[in-house]
Amino acid sequence: MGRIKKKGTSGAAKNYITRTRAVKKLQISLPDFRRLCIFKGIYPREPRNKKKVSKGSTAATTFYYTKDIQYLLHEPLLAKFREHKSVAKKIGRALGRGEVGDAARLEKNLIPKVKLDHIIKERYPSFVDALRDLDDALSMLFLFANLPSSEHIPTKTIALCQRLTHEFEHFVIVSHSLRKSFLSIKGIYYQATIQGQDIMWLVPYRFVQRTAGDIDFRIMGTFVEFYTTLLGFVNFRLYTSIGLVYPPKFNVKSDEEGGELGAFQLEGKAITDGEPATNGDVADAIASAEAQAEVDKIIANAANESIADTQDSTALVRTEEDEENNEAIDKFETTAQDADVLPQPQASSTEAASLFAPFTFYLSRETPRAPLEFLLKAFGSKRVGWDSILGDGAFTTDESDTTITHQIVDRPTLPNGSLPDPPPVPETVHGGAVPPKAQWPRSTVPGRTYVQPQWVWDCINQGKLLRPDLYAPGAELPPHLSPWVKPKKGEYDPNLPLEQQEPEGEAEAFEEEEGDGDGDSVSEDEEAPAVQELEDAVIDRDSSVEAGEGMDVASAEDDSDEEEMDEDIANEWEGFESEGESDISDGEAERRQHQRELEAEAAGVTLESKPKTAKEQKTESRKKLEKKRKQEEEDRERQKMMLSRRKRKLLKRIEYGTEKRDKEAENLRRKKRRIENAKEAANAI
Amino acid sequence: MAPYSRKRKVTAHDGSADSSTGSHLELGNGLLEGILSHSEDESENTSDEDVSIEASEADEGFSDEGDLDSDDFPDEAEEDEAEIRNQIRNLKTSDPFPHTTRADEADAGPADGLEDLSGVEGLKRNYTVTTDANGNPRYLYQEIDPVYDSDDSDAPATANTIGDIPLSYYDTYPHIGYDINGRKIMRPAKGEALDALLDSIDIPKGWTGLTDPATGKPLELSEEELDVLKKLTRNELPEEGYDPYPDMVYYFTGREEIMPLSAAPEPKRRFVPSKHEAKRVMKIVKAIREGRIQPYKAPAEVEEEDRELYSYDIWADELPRPEHSMHIPAPKLPPPGFDQSYHPPPEYLPDKTEKAAWLETDEEEREKEYLPTSYEALRKVPGYDRFVKEKFERCLDLYLAPRVRRNRLNIDPESLLPKLPSPDELKPFPTTCATIFRGHDGRVRSNSIDPSGTYLASGGDDGTVRIWELSTGRQLWNAKLSVEDAVDAVRWRPCKDAAILAAAAGENIYLIVPFALLSPDIEQSGRDILDAGWGYAASKPSTNGVATKEPPAKWTRPGTRLEDKGVLVQISVRSSVKVINWHRKGEYFATVSPRGQSTAVAIHALSKHLTQLPFRRLKGLAQSAQFHPSKPIFFVATKNSIRSYDLSKQELVKILQPGAKWISSFDVHPGGDNIIVGTYDKRLLWHDLDLSTKPYKTLRYHQEAIRAVAFHQGGLPLFADASDDGSLQIFHGKVVGDLMENATIVPLKVLRGHQVKSRLGVMDIDWHCREPWCVSAGADGTCRLWN
Question: Residues annotated as region Disordered (chain A) (predicted)?
Fold first, then answer.
């Protein structure tokens, strides 16, 4: 007979360990344990059966996987922590004695340096693993790069974060791997695809961050320490993978002048032409351009001769070449409605590289320079200039430069004459040779496109150049949409017109609701201000209509009034009593109709079929739909009756989610409908 | 110290210098100064000046008037002036502001103004300049000539115009003279009067006249404090009994002793430089020269270390991560939605109520941590104030939150719902009562529709079997089988070639070919089938020892009365038969008589007129028995289980456990794989024989016991049950050949019509062979056709 098994010696009880026990086992302090867990990426677990693990008690406890903790026992960092503790003791003693010099010496020489290389390798055995986990690292480092230094955040850390993030941005620019970006109220989201991994990060707007409240910067600092190491190695790998020298040259002077991205100079054979040209090189470029032009001319002449000889053959060859050169995937369009759509990979890096390539941009001084510079360069533009107060590294700081094709402006247009005339340029100083500077609000340069910053984002997300007139300065911008949300079936899609999304009869139902609002003024009053606001917004937006005081009438009221009028007329014309028409049930209506027919027959007259008013038709169709829906519901109930209890519960859970989604979508549609109605009303007036 | 305990006026009267200085110390501030100076005016010149100023001012007061009499009594005026001055000097209380410059000019005349020569100096030069021995200018001052009788025209006018009479004349008057306007000059207050006034004022002990800045109350000082103050003003140390200049005490004598303590002479090493030190120094010098010892340089900051940090490819030899089920990577944050945009479509913006609701909810409980807001331009977007907080919370989640792999509930809810055939698809099924067959006295126990579907046979408590035309309800044929026993079961033989009805009344089973009802050839073939067995039974009456045993049944002719009607065979068994069921081929039929233990189930062979008892002993009370529609399998229902036997192998195949307390009846699906069971405990059970021995569905829709159940045998997916609550229930029960799919059961219709008599409702039910019609036998003495 085998021995009786003791409880709690195997299985789940052994597989999990509480945090207190883990800390005791490792013989370190709780903060050290926390640091270790952050570095090693060890997280608590939720055992399937809590009672089995904690000997019957169900108190809230944190459990770790025992093997994780065992694995920590061999961690070299543990020794470092202990060393650090002993040195800290020595320093404390020295300070207690007032031997400041000794303490400083101890701190300088004896404090062990923590290296996290091996942990990076351990946690991310392959490079792709590291890329997969880069989201949080990038968001965190971009945040810290924008924070002011304080007692918790040393300047050195911030500088390191800035350097690493800029290096990463440079890689994204050079490799053209940025895919999407989104202006949210939290900050700017970016998404890059590197080696098949989608990496999304969030960069805050450049404002002073609110760091008050219970935020423990020691924890964040630990994360930042780990993430900087990670991003450093990732950067190294990324740079070397495209043949760049990793720590790119860092120009301290340029950085001090606000060069940001421009303070780094990439080196490597593959990238000489990808280097963003600065204004200093323009002279050379011009010189070489002249030479190039001559060469081109000669070649062209030669080519012309040859073309004259063999025109047909070249044409043939060219077409062939065209076909061959085009290695991009063709887009398959379905010809029929009901066909399945197979997914195809989206825009490749070459497309990204060519989006803004032919343009020269100029950023006005009120635009956010850092994100625009990054985006424009990542999407192929090599010539981005800005006002000199925005910092160093611009392609040009001269707004009147004739090569500029696009100017990004975030200032409203002002009516003519509202601006004071620019101070007259003293002729003696400039000698009349310098043309007067073209400043945006006063004058526009012909041939230059002026757009608001959102244009850049929307172009990127849609992968094509959009009409710039929609984004002209001072224009009412189209809504900015998240490129990541793909509305599923049953969800609201703001891109589609409302008619395509509304289930049958919903529009009528909404209108009915609005119409009903006339009767009970209470509900109307509640909703009225919101509607009012929206209406006002709509009115303000519409430039062709003058915003008047008398436009406050809700559209629904108008409609219903008109309808009532129609009805009255119709009633008079018909001569039948039809009060409370809508209340009459179908059966009753039928009966009456029959009665009428009988009467007509008795009188010897043929009864002309009663023409129906629009409203009647509407209500009829709605009623039909309602009936249908009711029947469907009944069917569903019947089906549910046949289910087992377990399945019924499961169904209930699923339906909760879908119901919530449907409700949300319906709410959005209702709002949209209301806005559209308001807009229509505004247009009508 | 005595003076401090006394009142202040005492110190004022004390003539001694000591006490006056003492009082100066105590109260030497502000107004009090003047009062004290009053006591020393006789000895000091400074106060003299003060008084003279007063006098000169008084003189000026009447100088214009004095021009009249100045010619007459210039000298007297002088004298008077001096006298009055003296008097006033005695009486004057205080003048805190010394007007020295005015006094100089005014007192040019008086003899006591000798020291005020500087004032005179400014008027004319009273020196001659010569050169001294060094050649520097030297001032030689003239002898000062005091001019007593000045002819200054604007001599001070007299204030007291009493003329040249001694003042003593006025001693008895309250005034001392007259002014220029003839008004009395009143005698100023004397010392005694002041004393008397001061006596009347009581000054508290320790009064200083100051306010304590700390408390705002009058400052009072104790004696000790005053003592300390006094010492401080004297530049003495405030401590009691401290001697600032004590006598010097010598620590050692400056004398040299004659006898030294040691007689040893001074050693030489005290005078010779050390060789050892020289050696060591030389060593260091040599090392410095050779460059082994470098001058100290502060070590440079190790800044380059960071640069070195990421200088190698850590993934140079990368391996794929080994799959581990316990490794759960951190979930990524979801991408932002439309409502997070800085300029979302207007329908995403919250209206007022939503906004208020959002603001009202606690920050932790908000569904969304942000409120969708629209900004017209990018420049108007403010910073997001929860940014750091959110990142911090993400950090906490990463290392503090337990990670659980949760399966996404990615089931299409439609797939969960059973696929119900649409109501149209379910359609033909009986809905209304079409015909009522009346005629039986008492309950109708059983009924059956013949295989051609034109006749209905029924048997009831009155012991008769009646045959009706199904479509019209007309009774075509009847026969009274028994007087006292009820007809418990009637069943048509299921073959179309001949119409044979089996009916059971008590212990007898009758096989009937109804006379003059059917077409002659069918009638004849029925008679042939029944008659064929007579020969067989006669040829083998008793061959091998069966005679010893009583045969289980006797096949006889029932007698001419019944034979004329068409009742051709009577089979007598040992106990009363309740159930008859035919084999589908019509050769065999099984009877069940629940009371007869070993003879409960009998199988009768029609062609041989032979009765067999397949079970020697049966566990439990037999309730019903059925043949499998296609296989040689025989089902027997006992009180709470159903057993199936393989007849060819003669063995038990399966025991079904419906879990019922008392099975009333059961029926086998024409496919043979499904069984429905009706029970007296109100349940209808569907058994899938392939699935399990437990029921696949348990239906409880009846209020009373279920008496009979029946499948439609003609190809429609219908079944029905009859209950004591007087209702029939029709179900759709579709069985698909596919083993993966379960049978679909849909309740269709409840048919009510039968009346409940003495707690019995519907006794039996049978389906039409082709049409969706069913017939029920009721305890109210009627049969009903439903279509």
Answer: 410-445, 480-685
